[in-house]
Amino acid sequence: MSLRTLARLQRPRRRELKSEPLSREQSVYCEDRGPPFNEVLQLYHPNLDRHGSIVSLRSRRSQRASSLSSESSADQEVVRLPVLKRVPLPKTPYGRSRRLLIPASDNLPLVAISMRADAQFINRQDQFRLTLNSLPNPGVQQHVEDACVVGDIVVLGFNSGPSQVTFLPVTTKAPRRIDSKALPHVSPPRLSGSSGEGVRCLAAMNATAGSVEFFTGGHDRRIFKWSADTQSLEEPTVTKIGAFLDSGVSAMAYRHDDNSLVSSDTKKLYVTDLTRSHTPSPAQFSNYVNQIHVHPQIPHLTLLEVRHLDHQIAMFDRRMGGFDKAPCCTFGYRNANAKFEPSYTKGGMHHTFFARGHHDGTVVLWDFRNVKNIVTKRQSRLTQEVVHTVVADSRVVTFGDSVVTFLNDFLRS
């Protein structure tokens, strides 16, 4: 036998590492001695965990799956939004802020409309501007008096320009404008040289899967009902309402429970029964009526925004009488400059809360559940003026000076 063969036979055979339980002595030796030692130990025994304990192959696989699952859930965790989130919009000449609108579908963005008909879209969940969906003015001189949303279709009303109404369907695709061919509002000859032409205010009525209905009030003192098929918005059906106001229509709101339209010509309030086409004598007001709100859940409640230094909101309960009676309550905020708010300023309702921003940047939230003791629930001061205030997804959102501001905790305290 050769020396090489003899040396090979005398050499101790290497023991193969097998997935077998450790002996008592090995267990004592493999007790937890800290991360560095245990990591080295794992290189020699793959069935040991980082603490020196035996782990079966099935347990190791389940741990890995659990780890991947926890990482995936961490990636999908909703990021906590800041208390106040500002979303600046592009500034344009004559592009004053007009309306901030909320489509009916929760997955669609908010729509900000400027005086020159620029449309910007803001993601309401993550609160950022959708730059690729920006829809600036196409280069046509237009003046937006008012805008509303009917279902998922935004309606723009103009007092000047080639059209009086423009539709803007809000979808997940690229937005587009659809100009209506109808021009029902005709200014009287004595007003033909003034800026008071075309539409002055809008009011949403109803939206179904295939059509939308709304009202337009004009400087010509007339009100029209519009019915449009969603597939042919450029050719709506326009019907005149049997109400002729004493001056231009300043505000409107539809009451769905009794199928009536509440309208104003600044100092008078009209209630038109659309079923009977009848309008009784109007109620007189001492202050200009700029906005009308019918509570969406409690239709017998109507809130008016009027021109007053201290009490800009007047609430009426139809169960206690008509508009010819005193309001149930009045409340408001006195501007720091002691000036009247612009007529375009508009607030928003949410259950028993009313939120309204002001020209000096102050946003106030009132709780009117007790009409004898209206509570100022929250008050905050922004750095820019506020024209329109809405409540979207239980968040107060303001629009003014080309900035959309989300007040994410305004309703939570």
From TrEMBL:
Highest taxon of the lineage: Eukaryota
Chain segments carrying region Disordered: 1-29
SUPFAM superfamilies: WD40 repeat-like
InterPro entries in the record: WD40/YVTN_repeat-like_dom_sf (IPR015943), WD40_repeat_dom_sf (IPR036322)
Name of this chain's protein: WD40 repeat-like protein
